[in-house]
Write a structure and sequence with these properties.
alpha+beta, Antithrombin, Chain I, domain 2, Alpha-1-antitrypsin, domain 1, 434 residues, 2 domains, seven-stranded mixed beta sheet, 35% strand
Length: 434
Amino acid sequence: MIFLSRILITVLMLAQNVVAGEPEAPACSVVVTTSDVVTTVDLKESVARITGLNGNLVPHLLRELSKINDEENLVVSPFNILNAVQLLYPGATAETATEMANALGIHGIELADFLADFAAVKRALTAPIDVRGQTQMTTLNLGSLLYANNRAGFEFDANYVNLAKRAFGATAAAMDFADPASLGRINADVAAATENLIPKMLPALAPKVVSVLISTLFIKGAWKNVFEPYSTLPGEFTRLDGSKITVPLMKQNNRFFYGENADMQVVRLPTQDGKAYMEVVLPKTLENSQAVREALVLNGDQKIALSQQKIMLALPRFEVSWGGSLRDIIKGIIPSAFEDESGFSKLGSSRLIVSDVIHKTAIQVNEGGFRAAAATAVTLEGAESVEMPPMITMIVNHSFGLRIVAYASGQEIELFRSWVNSPEPTPAPENDSF
């Protein structure tokens, strides 16, 4: 049987999301250094800016993604895509810089302040939580990779590299793109940054490409309430078209933050250290799956009040991945980046235009926890070239949605948003590892 392997995972950073039973996160500030100046930033404001809440790129991206065939899986990380565009932004000038600032929602904000915002959010998002007695901490890494084609005579501007290193933690390398080993090096770097969830970022390097900028995201979390492997049994899963497949269904009875309305059930599975959670959104009927899918793609958080309740949860053990070009979508909102050869004069030694934006994602879910990764590559060419209530049940045996959210010093940042129509079964983990 052939399993479709596409999903929607969205990486939007939410400034804040208050749920019944969960306290509101306190305001906080972070001290960062991205140049010769030490800056104190308000983390809540920084999260709002870095997640593009005031820009038009994310809404445009989600509108276009919602048009993708709803019988396919879809996995996208808008946060990771934003990171890639943000990595490119310090090299932009003139009309290109203006379009990018509007798309990112940072028009009127000084570059130094924007870079301080990113550095602060990255530090808070990737910092481990100090929880005594926890043996499995959530791993969350953001990476930025810069590659220059020295065979084409391209060199990064020294000031751009310095800014990218300080704010994004970027690494830079010069290589001969005509050498097959260079493509292998780029793909190996992305594979290492994503624990091999994305083993092959780029299929090839076009002859005119003089630079590649890549943003990576990886998160690995162990469940607070693990699923016992002996409880995992084959179960039937119904896809949107009514066809059925057999998947391994993990099961447990436990207390989770849970809520529902007339259209859907929602449950949150927290990590052991409380750093992140995965949220599963299950339509109550196949008939309203399309409406729920569209609501999830466009809005993410469904604003359903959640409270701790004991439920019987059955969830597939699965993996999903997606990959494709976002060139036309990004060009629709930042056209000059693809057309104006003078638009990136602060990036390097050549007159450049963006030639493609490639996005890849993957998620794995099993009894012990979840792993998720995203990478976005921007290629640039030379301009020329009492009575006990009944037990609540939530059997995830048809198309469903999920979100993965992490905490940055108390502020929620949504990393992934997913719609699963055809989960691909995975083998049981060995030695309770994942």
